[in-house]
Design a protein that fits this description.
The protein is an alpha+beta fold and about 150 residues long. Helix content is about 30%, strand content about 40%. It has a 6-stranded mixed β-sheet. Strand 4 and strand 5 form a beta hairpin. Helix 3 crosses helix 4.
Amino acid sequence: MTHVMRYAAKLRIELVDQPVDSHAELPISSAGMKELLERNLHEVFGENDPNRRRAALNELWTDDCTLHAPPGVIRGREAIDAFAGQLRATHSDFVYTPIGEPQILHDAGRLAWGSGPAGEPPRYTGWDVVITSNGRIATLIVFLDGSGK
């Protein structure tokens, strides 16, 4: 009996084997999730060139994607591209730097990051939490921590 099974039994949670669905998507690998989180950080939100940013969005995000960020909920790649471009325009000299290793749970992952001028301490920090579908970002939820000082 695994640790999870013992813990579930202690909480009186019944774990049920799911039938195999030949049409179900395969879960993203840990390495794939790490790459997805870091590429999104750099190639979408850290990219100043609009053509490269759009190409990354098209590759990394699903068609029906959603971004939950402090200004609100943004739906679709075109709207997310516009938001990322506006965000970059406010601080085009800032870089995003991962803090620690991402955490992965099935088709979800989270990455802590800092943002500020290259070579300086972060001016602010946050977390990206993604839910994937078929190895691409379906939902990104951004949490801001505030000042990195």
